[in-house]
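README: folding subset

This subset contains proteins for which both the sequence and a predicted structure token string are available. Records are stored as plain text. Below is the entry for Anticodon nuclease (378 residues), shown exactly as it appears on disk.
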Amino acid sequence: MSKTLKEIAQQLRAANKKVQLIYAFNGTGKTRLSREFKELIAPKTDTEDALQSALTQKKILYYSAFTEDLFYWDNDLQLDAEPKLKIHTNAFTRWVLEEQGQDQNITTIFQHYTNEKLTPHFSSDFSAVSFSFERGNYEQESNIKISKGEESNFIWSVFHSLIEQMISELNIAEASERSTDAFNNLEYVFIDDPVSSLDENHLIELAVNLAGSIKSSQSDLKFIVTTHSPLFYNVLHNELDLSKNGKKEGCYLLECFEDGTFDLNVKYGDSNKSFSYHLHIKQTLEQAITENKVEKYHFTLLRNLYEKTASFLGYPKWAELLPDDKQLYLSRIINFTSHSTLSNEAIAEPTPAEKAMVKLLLDHLKDNYGFWQQVGNE
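--- output ---
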């Protein structure tokens, strides 16, 4: 039965599980769900600035696109010499940076996921951070502006350091024996898709590390993790071993319907066993074609399906699975799925001919590469 995101947030809270793992396609509503859940656990009030700014009052810690908004660039437009990443401080960033002095640990985590020569430099009051690149032979390229992916990795490193400290404190059973009372009221950690800019090796490593942190938690703290990555989902699922009576629990598929409602379906096993990610993509494409509702993002799904099929069959490049005029089809798909900096307006909505191409390429994949297809009434 379809629900609103508020109702799904209530469903997650009522489940009362230590870990709940959710898979959803990009654009389905994961980040909006994190906001709905935060509002459910700790609704804003008119006196929030006065009463809720203290860390000790916080009930939920969440990482999402909104977390990244706490960090923004000062590009030094007048001199173009000293760009820096500004930190819009809140109770959590103040605690991890100012009170706990975790800047070196953050640097270590960040360099682990990016490059050991890429070094962040915090200002004395932790209100900004600049970056340099060590080139060897004591040469240093200072005040560089890092990529969007590296920026996301840096922000996750701050959050990851905070999680480690928080779990460590709450693992001390007697509140009076903790070094801080900052987390005594914390009930939930909501992590929304931290892997958008990681390669597969680091994605797996992040999933293993996050699972290790969650498993080390001995308190009543509860974790909700959402992702669009089937690989990240699978690694977390298997590392956390969410088993009871032979079944995997706490795993879901979040779906969004045309009328703007949602559903959260319980799934058992990883993505390959529970919701067969590649078959889900295939079904989504078939539905869009049948209803004549092919949009730009369906080209991304089509490419994803080709990539997964090619990987499974051992082809070095997914384009090798395309029909005879491979370059023509490849160019068109790349045009719609490119992550370039062009604005959305640079690529128009698919034409009728391009929509027909999606059907042609999907049928080609199904007819030639071993997809089972129902015949007659069987």
